[in-house]
Design brief:
Radius of gyration of chain B: 24 Å
CATH superfamily of chain A: MetI-like
CATH architecture of chain A: Orthogonal Bundle
Shape of chain A: globular
Shape of chain B: globular
Number of helices of chain B: 11
Number of domains of chain A: 1
Structural class of chain A: mainly alpha
Number of helices of chain A: 15
Oligomer: heterodimer
Largest interface: A-B, 42 and 43 residues
Structural class of chain B: mainly alpha
CATH class of chain A: Mainly Alpha
Largest sheet of chain A: none
Order of helices and strands of chain B: HHHHHHHHHHH
Radius of gyration of chain A: 24 Å
Order of helices and strands of chain A: HHHHHHHHHHHHHHH
CATH topology of chain A: MetI-like fold
């Protein structure tokens, strides 16, 4: 009785506020979200504040160490003009990390969205239409049995030159990497979405909607998709993490973006040869990748808890 | 169970054929040309002859069945001949690498031990570390140990092998000078000192690969143990007065291992994929490095064969995981 009166007085709340309240209780997730926002702003707004051209060669100031080396080695070459140091051609590392982060994050987000679109489409179609279920899921299983990393490497190598000729060096490789990662990472989303759609399809509200003659298209967009949103969001975070790692791995194997075009993986790959003398050049991009992926994983963990109505509100 | 196994085995044949077809067509349709690395001074008619010599003159519907025949019939015949001194192969054409002009499987046989040694060792180490971590984490849920385990496995998921490997080299080879950064595959173990050296050079590659395995397997182990610890049979076992170690190690652990064993089987192909990157970092001349070299040299038969072998491994491990599930858990019988 008292509960009901309290409900009467309390303001009506959107369910997303409940999700947010639950999300806030997960410390790792909040920390991850803060870091993701920070690194995104660092890469987006950073270049206009810092104002150093990442490709500008400055041979006189080459091989500068980051400023913290002054603490233990006063003879080192360092300066406030380049707080993270410069590389062997005098390019500012901080500007490169910002520029590289823009590309790495852009690749990650686009590839993740592409994988989600493919995965959700396949999952909803397979779950909703019985006729398509067998063939689509058989196809998903087949793709899952492909050795994905070697195939991705093959695709990178074989389609690089024609796409570069068609769209220009940057655009071509971007399209190639995003498509490659997208079409090799949609399978888990498809499976999860299919399972959820099949469960929701049997519920009463779907029956009610069908009984008033809702066509399949509106059924999917109005009733099914909003209800499978939470597993899609969780697999989105996982997809973002794997896309960033895969892009860096491709760059690290020398099959990613061209050499004058920094991404985090590319900077790391270029610095490996000189890591004996300048370990910081490896550590900066590596930390950027690892911390971004770690924070995205924590966000996914928090989202999974927050979107689960059995846990929420406890 | 036998009929299920047979049915699955038969099912995997079209799967493998489809995968072989996808890989073949990807290489076929790709605009890359194995002749593109040749000097431009070679006249076109000579180039055409070289193409024919590489076997590229025939259309794909001739070459694809030919490759299948070479892979599934001719190569096993050669193994059989080598093992038993027979002559089934009778000088039939083997799969030849474009780069080295030697049979692809000879090169793979040379490279396989290094990869198996590093990858196998790291997988065993990873699983052996992961199992106790998972068990203790689940038994003491939300304890400091559990929280630390969660954090470490989160790091294992998030830090890519090309960073953890490079970081280990910076710390242990560059700064502390304890371990060699390059894996010497010509090293032969003859006495205690060489054994120690072998151990030292294996530590870092194994740790890098094992970190990923540990992160994954320990999470599954923990979740599976947690599922079982709240079951009624555990309460019954305790009520009968069994000691805690018997309850946990015999009753709960055996039941929790069922899904974990399949996860371990399914993880084997992915660790071979991870080995591609790890071998590149530590300069191990294994299969992964061979694949990269073949890719860069447009060596289509080599790329095709290695990729297909990985696909066979994935299909095989899926099969083993399915069968193991049925064998370990009598409640699940597919018949």
């Amino acid at each position: 009785m008292t509960d009901e009166t309290m409900d009467m007085t309390a303001k009506p709340r959107n369910q997303w506020w409940d999700v947010w309240d639950q999300f806030k209780t997960h410390k790792g997730a909040v920390f991850g979200l803060c870091f993701l926002i920070f690194i995104t702003l660092f890469c987006l707004i950073g270049p206009s504040l810092w104002g150093v051209d990442p490709g500008k060669l400055d041979i006189r100031n080459k091989d500068m160490r980051p400023i913290y080396t002054a603490i233990f080695d006063s003879g080192a070459k360092y300066g406030w003009a380049h707080p993270m140091g410069t590389d062997n051609l005098g390019r500012d590392i901080m500007a490169n990390i910002m520029q590289g982060g823009r590309i790495s994050l852009a690749v990650g987000w686009t590839a993740m969205i592409l994988a989600l679109v493919i995965g959700t489409t396949v999952g909803v179609l397979a779950g909703y239409f019985k006729r398509l279920d067998g063939i689509l899921m058989r196809f998903t299983d087949l793709v899952l049995a492909l050795p994905l990393l070697p195939l991705l490497l093959v695709m990178m190598l074989l389609f690089r030159d024609p796409l570069r000729a068609a769209f220009g060096p940057e655009q071509g490789i971007f399209i190639l990497i995003v498509t490659g990662i997208g079409i090799t990472s949609w399978m888990h989303t498809a499976r999860i979405v299919r399972g959820d759609v099949m469960a929701i399809k049997e519920r009463e509200f779907v029956l009610a909607a069908r009984s008033i003659g809702t066509p399949a298209r509106r059924m999917i967009t109005r009733h099914l998709l909003p209800n499978v949103l939470s597993p899609i969001m969780v697999s989105a975070t996982l997809g973002l993490a794997t896309a960033i790692i895969t892009e860096s791995a491709l760059s690290f194997l020398g099959l990613g973006f061209p050499s004058d075009f920094p991404t985090w993986g590319k900077i790391l790959f270029d610095s490996v040869d000189r890591m004996t003398a300048y370990p910081e050049r490896v550590i900066w991009p590596g930390l950027a990748i690892s911390l971004t992926v770690l924070s995205v994983n924590y966000i996914g963990d928090g989202l999974r808890d927050a979107l689960d109505p059995r846990i929420r509100g406890l | 169970m036998l009929t299920f196994t047979l049915r699955r085995l038969l099912m995997s044949i079209p799967t493998l054929l489809f995968i072989a077809f996808v890989i073949f067509m990807l290489l076929e349709l790709a605009p890359g040309d194995p002749m593109s690395q040749m000097p431009l001074t070679i006249p076109p008619e000579v180039k055409e002859k070289m193409r024919l010599a590489l076997g590229l003159g025939e259309p794909w519907w001739v070459r694809f069945p030919l490759w299948l025949k070479q892979f599934f019939i001719v190569e096993p015949q050669y193994w059989w001949d080598a093992a038993f001194g027979t002559n089934f192969a009778d000088g039939a054409q083997r799969i030849i690498s474009f780069q080295s002009r030697s049979p692809v499987f000879d090169t793979i046989a040379q490279r396989l031990p290094q990869t198996l040694w590093v990858v196998g060792m790291s997988y065993i180490v990873g699983v052996l570390i992961a199992l106790p971590i998972g068990i203790i984490s689940a038994y003491k849920q939300y304890s400091v140990f559990d929280q630390t385990g969660t954090f470490v496995s989160m790091i294992g998921f998030s830090v890519p092998p090309f960073f953890s490997g490079v970081l280990l080299i910076v710390i242990f080879s560059v700064q502390l000078k304890w371990l060699p950064s390059i894996y010497d595959t010509t090293h032969v173990v003859t006495n205690w000192d060489t054994f120690i050296f072998q151990l030292k050079q294996m530590i870092m590659p194994v740790i890098v690969l094992a970190l990923q395995t540990t992160a994954q397997v320990s999470r599954y182990m923990r979740a599976s143990m947690l599922d079982n610890l709240t079951q009624d049979y555990v309460r019954t076992a305790r009520a009968k007065g069994m000691t805690e170690s018997v309850v946990v190690m015999k009753h709960v652990l055996r039941n929790s291992m069922i899904p974990v064993v399949t996860v371990i089987a399914l993880g084997i192909p992915s660790i071979f994929g991870g080995a591609i990157i790890t071998e590149q970092i530590f300069k191990v001349n294994g299969l992964g490095q061979l694949l990269i070299i073949a890719l860069q040299g447009n060596d289509i038969p080599m790329v095709m064969t290695i990729t297909f072998l990985l696909a066979v491994l994935i299909v095989l491990m899926n099969l083993i995981a399915d069968i193991l599930y049925g064998v370990l858990d009598p409640r699940i019988r597919y018949d």
